[in-house]
Each structure stands twice: as C-alpha cells, then as structure tokens.
Amino acid sequence: MTDLYNPDYKYMERALELAEYAAKLGEVPVGAVIVHKPTDTIIGEGWNLREKNRSPLAHAEIMAIDNASRKLGGWRIIDSAMYVTLEPCPMCCGAIIHARLDNLIFGAYDEKSGSVCSVQKMFAMPYNHKPEILGGILQEECSNQLKAFFKELREKKRLQKNNNKF
Fold it and tell me: What is the set of active-site residues?
C-alpha cells in the first residue's frame, strides 16, 4: 500500500488512473499529471492518444503539457512538476525542457526509448533548462500495468491469428 499523503505517490496514483483509461481506449497505458507546486493543484492531465488521434505526437506528456499551458494561458509551465508513469522519450523530454517544468517524476524505466536515463540522458545535455528528476516512483505498479497491457495485446493477436486459420 502506498502513502497517499506523500504527494509523489498521490499524483503518480492519478497518473496510473489516466494510464488505465488509455488502456481501455486501446492505447499504450501511459498517464501524465502536471501539478502547480505553490497551490498543490493539478493543472494538466494527459494520456496516450496516438491510435485514436492517429498522431505520433499524442503522447501522455505532450497532452498534459498542452492541457496545462492552455489552462495557464502561456507556454511556460513554471513552478510545476510532471508525474508520468513511464520514463519520457526524446520528444517528450524536449517538450519538458521547452515548457520549463521544474520537476519530472516518473514511474517505470523505459529501456527501449527512455531518454531521461535509460537510452540517453537528455537532461544532462547542455540545454538551457534542466528539471529535477526522480525516477522509480510506484515503479512496480507502473511497470506491471504496461506488462499486463502488452501481454493482453499479444494474446488477442494470437487468438486472432488462430481464428484466421479456419
């Protein structure tokens, strides 16, 4: 059981709920939440919508950043932290830099395209903004959610392949 009084866990739990919603839509289950730190309020949420939107840009992080910037009325999302269930890719790291997010907290590590620390260290490069990073928050829950989704997807494909034989 997690300590829901710890904001890192509380907001990652919300990101997991958004990821579950994405999975129900048939999307890879990744959820993201942006919190305005001084007011401790959620100002942006997002989940993967690549399949529904037919867009490679519709990552949970991008959707949350867009949502927060529209709510704030500007492109700078300062004094804010992003919570995301999976280590961001290069595109999302770039968006985090450009949005000027202060903190990035992620759950599962992504050994295939994670660009915070797994495949590359995007925030160690000489960009003009570097958020503070915390990885592995609710890592097991985030990882298990992704594993279950892909296991179910493989099973559906296997059954479909078997049904097509007849």
Answer: 61
